[in-house]
Amino acid sequence: MPSVFSKRGEAKVSHIRLPVRDFAQVTMPPMDALQRTVDLEGFWAASLNLVSSALPHHSCSLMFGIEDYQPRAARHHVTQAQRRDYMPATSLSVSRPFLQAHPQVRLYTYSEIVSQDPGARRRRLALEEPVEEWADFVHLAFWHDARPAAVLSIRRSEAQPRFTQDELGFLEAVYPMIDAALYRLRALEEERAKNLVFEQLLRATAAPALLVDAQGQVLFATEAAHSVCALWNAAGEGGLPRIPEELPELLARQQLTSGMVMDHPNLPLSLRLSLCTPQSGLFSSGAYGMLTFSQGGTDARLPRPASVLDRLSPSERRVALLVASGLRNGQVAERLSRSRRTVESQLNSIYGKLDIDCRTQLVNLLR
């Protein structure tokens, strides 16, 4: 079979004919889905649909997280197999020397590797066992700088025809669109990872603050804000406090306006709203608000119960607030779906952190 690559492993697209089959009509819906994907599972589903719509195959795999030419993870799909329990190997050992010798190569076949590397078949048998489930593959390699970031493998069995020039030309044509989808996924994952780190850092800060959207829905809250919200809710209703993760209901009942200040009806505690409108962009929508708590709306210090709760872990805060509301240990355990022994252990930890000896002192601290 004529190779679609030069000796340097670079794709030669000038001599590739347009496919005889109308691949564009066959693959338009999968391509649309591929262009809209925003996560790994969506990308894998769209890629698999794209391959299935245009190329008969024995099995298909997406290998990613590649370090030193070894994938850390993969997604596999087997269309037909001799053994019911067959699963392709998550490995690039067969093609590793070829990838090293042809950096930035986009597309290659097993037949091409074997023609250049006599040891490829031996490595393949060691990897896949003597029973040969597939006879040939075509790999699409996607690179990040000088290393492969992902490889899409499409395999055919002995009973299926070898890959034609039209099919290889089709894969070469859709390669840039798949590569663009992977680039978008990488950018989104990096942004998500960065946001997660930022959130972890912010949650550990002492400032009680919440980020809300234009509809008043809470997008983020620090641990201190959870404590103050629990205090606000408990004192506001005069009944049992809810767990700290439940934020003030007042946010859902109020029209948020810039500079808004709201005083608690029973505590010297206020919340203040500062609005921030992002710079205009293609998809920007509305403003965001930062809600902060203070005593009486002027003093930056928080009421004593809030500062007491800050000394406890989130789990201990739940126990402390429920005990302070009048629940016994068994009732607290039932409310939090824990054992009574766990609640008693946490109470002892709470007493130690707050330097008190009994639940009466705890109630007085949080009153």
Domain count: the total is 2
Strand order of the largest sheet: 2-1-5-4-3
Largest sheet: 5 strands, antiparallel
Number of helices, where a helix is a run of at least 4 consecutive DSSP H or I residues: 13
| CATH T-level fold name of the largest domain | Beta-Lactamase
Question: How much is the radius of gyration in Å?
Answer: 30 Å
Sheet-strand content, in percent, reads: 15-25%
Shape estimate: elongated
Please bin the fraction of helical residues. 40-55%
The first-to-last residue Cα distance is 83 Å
- What is the name of the CATH superfamily of the largest domain? GAF domain
Averaged pLDDT, please?
79
Give the SSE string: HHEEHEHHEEHEEHHEEEHHHHH
If classified by CATH, what would the architecture of the largest domain be?
2-Layer Sandwich
Q: Which CATH class of the largest domain?
A: Alpha Beta
Name the poorly predicted regions: 1-20, 237-248, 297-301
* Structural class determined from secondary elements: alpha+beta
**SS elements, strand count:** 10
Detailed description of the structure:
With 367 residues, this protein is of the alpha+beta class. The protein has 2 domains: 23-194, GAF domain (Beta-Lactamase), CATH 3.30.450; 203-366, Arc Repressor Mutant, subunit A (Orthogonal Bundle). The chain contains 13 helices and 10 strands. It has helices at 23-36, 40-54, 96-101, 110-116, 120-128, 165-203, 223-237, 250-253, 304-309, 314-324, 329-336, 340-354, 359-366, and strands at 59-67, 70-78, 107-109, 136-144, 147-156, 209-212, 218-221, 261-263, 269-276, 288-295. The protein is elongated and about 80 Å long. Residues 1-20, 237-248 and 297-301 have low confidence and may be disordered.
